[in-house]
From TrEMBL:
HTH marR-type domain residues: 22-121
Keyword tRNA processing: no
Taxonomic source organism: Drancourtella massiliensis
SUPFAM superfamilies per record: Winged helix' DNA-binding domain (SSF46785)
Annotated protein name in UniProt: Winged helix-turn-helix transcriptional regulator
Length: 143
């Protein structure tokens, strides 16, 4: 049995994802490139390549393919981290590119967030975490 509330949540989550996809299309980048650059901007222009996969849910193969494209365009470069870790970094060109393509998303999100009361912000975060934790719990049991 599928509950109406869960159905509404799934629908809303899909609509939100579609809006981010539309933003990517309008700015001329793929969803995976948008997600990679978004994480890099959130992390100050550098982060572990493995962290991108963990934070976005995008497959490593898709991330690697997008990174190769971004390297050819001189948007990012790779640094060797500790052990087998690879660090993905924005170039100067990549920082400018991200200012144009990614930071407008941050501005929109911050504007929405600032329109909420502190209580609404905390409630949203608490319920989203609770949903995520429940999803992890039941998915682990399923898989």
């Amino acid at each position: 049995m599928h509950y109406l509330g869960a159905e509404q949540y799934t629908y809303l989550a899909g609509e939100i994802n579609a809006l981010y996809h539309e933003a990517a299309v309008k700015t001329g980048i793929s969803d995976s490139v948008q997600n990679i650059l978004y994480v890099l901007c959130e992390k100050g222009g550098k982060c572990l390549q493995s962290e991108i996969s963990r934070l976005t849910g995008i497959s490593r193969q898709t991330i690697n393919s997008a990174i190769r494209k971004l390297e050819k365009e001189e948007i990012v470069y790779l640094e060797q981290g500790k052990g087998r870790n690879t660090i993905l970094c924005l170039t100067e060109k990549g920082q400018k590119f991200s200012l144009e393509k990614i930071y407008p998303l941050h501005e929109i999100e911050n504007k929405i967030w600032s329109e909420w009361t502190p209580e609404e912000q905390q409630q949203y975060l608490a319920l989203t975490k609770k949903y995520r934790d429940g999803l992890k719990k039941y998915m682990e049991a399923l898989l």
